[in-house]
Amino acid sequence: MNPVFLPVRELAEAVRARRISPVELAETFLDRLERLGPRYNAVVTLTRERALVQARRAEGEIAAGRWRGPLHGIPYGAKDLLATAGIPTTWGAAPLRNQTFDFDATVIRRLEEAGAVLVAKLAMVELAGGMGYRQPNASFTGPGISPWGAEAWSGGSSSGSGSAVGAGLVPFAIGSETWGSILSPAAYCGISGLRPTYGRVSRHGAMALCWTLDKLGPLALTADDCGLVLGAIAGADPRDPSAVDRPFAYEAGDTTGRRFRFGVLRDVADNAEPAVQASFARSLETLQKIGTVQEVTLADLPYEAITRTILYAEAASAFEDLIESGGIAGLTAPEDHYTPYARDAILAKDYIKALRLRALVMREADRALAPFDALVAPGRPATAPALDQEFRDLHRPARDPMGAIGNVAGLPAIAVPNGFSERGLPTSLQFMGRAWEDNTVLAAARAWQSITDHHSRRP
User: Fold this and answer.
1) Active-site residue numbers?
2) What is the model's pTM?
């Protein structure tokens, strides 16, 4: 059988039934990563030796009847900000290309316990974008390239995770999001990407960009796959005080006949690219087959400014040593050589004000979401930018109220494909829910994918 582009659930059934072996799977995806990874600038390090040890162990366990679950023997890639013992963890930054740790991040350890097979450390925007990059070429591995266009960016900062899943180089990958870094690659690469509730997944062993915004989550072909992965990596961790002791079990039940209540923010797509607007309008019509769609308004708060202030201040603190030592001069993007100094000048009173306003945002978001299963919006307001395009205007930062609200309030969201532009680039739809209602968001996305076929299109 050809395992490429099969969802995790189908691969798991084939592995459990021994129609394909974990070693075959690992070798198949290692070969694709080696041959095709450079085309997308998706790979930092192949973890061949570790992968084959894990795959042989999985094969022996399954043959002996000791199947651990749906990730047993399934290859995956990890964004290169997750520590892996003895394997370089570069954080996407040229000055750190030889950095190694002597332990595994909790997410890596939990996936190993689930029997998953680590085949690669995947490329990312340097320091997860924390230095303020404004164009795709902000990684020493080169700009991430979408499998849907040779000149199209794969999104940041989990660029390699998006490219690798979208191009069929791995069945799933782990990314991170502080503001858009899971949903953007999912949107630009035509795949599904889940941002869990803040505190749902331990960040022990992950590079810190912004302690109160950072989240780890999966990118995969389907929403169901994302749920399977979240089920393996969620849970409290004594090594990460922010990981909440709130048990999570993925509920993968059939959504047939279930009626959802969807809210849509007034004017949420008004500033979007025409192709995105068109896909979103069609999506709202399709969503009425599985539920109701009702307009909702939010209080007039400076959502983006609040989130941006917290992000900039905490990033300046997280990378204080690198900034003050002048080490940022070795970064790839020219603007990353000086932008951090401006962020270093944010006043403590402005950071504290943003934290106080954050509580208002959280209450307002919960009020708006209370009558609904999810708010819906475009996953991104535009299709993938060209590789030579500067995508941020310093004087007029792009508006992203859903991203700002969702991240500063720590809310779960998933981006799934919902169409294509005239240039053949994917567009995306996001579902955002209340805190801790990850299963509801996943159910809504599964219901969407049960009546659409966008997720089954391949580049």
Assistant:
1) 79, 157, 181
2) 0.97
